[in-house]
Design a protein that fits this description.
The chain is of the alpha+beta class and about 170 residues long. The protein has three helices and nine strands; from the N terminus they run βααβββαβββββ. Strands 1, 2, 3, 4, 5, 6, 7, 8 and 9 form a nine-stranded mixed β-sheet that branches. The protein is globular, with a radius of gyration of 15 Å. The N and C termini lie far apart (about 40 Å). Bound molecules: coenzyme A (COA). Coenzyme A (COA) binds next to helix 1, strand 4 and helix 3.
């Protein structure tokens, strides 16, 4: 990495830039709108919406928000969604830094696990594995290896079999 990267919490003045970063990374606005819906809802965690800044420019963003696994009880966990790095800054380690800082921040805040629906080849290097290992299911049809989870402490997901309940923010408006 031959530039200085700063990972920091989002500020209100970043909202417009975060919208654009997600739009550029995904090539559509669905994820930008998802961020805006989560930000307005009760599952938003201001400390876990992080931006990656190079110079004065925001080039990446990651968001973790509260979700639940519903099994023989209701278990609190986090959703990692979405994460984005603008195309011209991809494959330089920025996404990895966002995930690592986000995981550390989540642990500090007392969260013990994270669920992600994403690229099966990307997340395992951060410790994620198929959520089916804990019998944790996605409420909609996805390929088994794309629905992943990681334990931030001990065996946090042991005995937490169930189905993830994605709040309404995750549904398109
Ligand atoms: C997914 C995404 C956020 C990853 O961000 P990123 O900054 O490119 O991620 P990284 O640079 O940390 O890692 C990407 C690849 O670059 C490689 N890489 C990391 N640092 C590198 C470096 N200094 N030089 C060359 N390659 C490097 C990594 O090994 C990784 O390759 P691998 O997955 O084959 O192992 C980004 O590609 C993106 O925004 N994609 C579009 C939106 C999207 O799909 N979001 C995720 C939804 S699940």
């Amino acid at each position: 990495m031959d530039f200085k990267l700063l990972i920091r919490k989002e500020q209100e003045r970043d909202y417009g830039k975060i919208y654009i970063v997600n739009k550029l990374a995904f090539g559509q606005e669905n994820e930008s709108r998802l961020v805006e819906r989560i930000r307005k809802g009760e599952n938003f965690i201001p400390d876990l919406s992080l931006v990656a800044e190079v110079g004065e420019k925001i080039v990446g963003h990651i968001l973790f928000s509260k979700i639940e696994i519903v099994g023989n009880s209701v278990f609190k966990t986090l959703a990692l969604a979405p994460m984005a790095v603008i195309p011209s800054f991809q494959k330089q380690g920025i996404g990895s830094e966002l995930i690592k800082k986000g995981m550390a921040g989540a642990r500090e805040l007392g969260f013990d696990s994270i669920i992600v629906l994403g690229h099966k080849d990307y997340y395992p290097k951060f410790g994620f594995k198929a959520a089916s290992a804990w019998n944790i299911k996605c409420p909609f049809a996805v390929s088994d290896d794309a629905f992943m989870a990681v334990e931030l402490t001990g065996k946090a997901l042991e005995g937490k079999a169930g189905t993830v309940n994605y709040p309404h923010e995750f549904m398109e408006d």
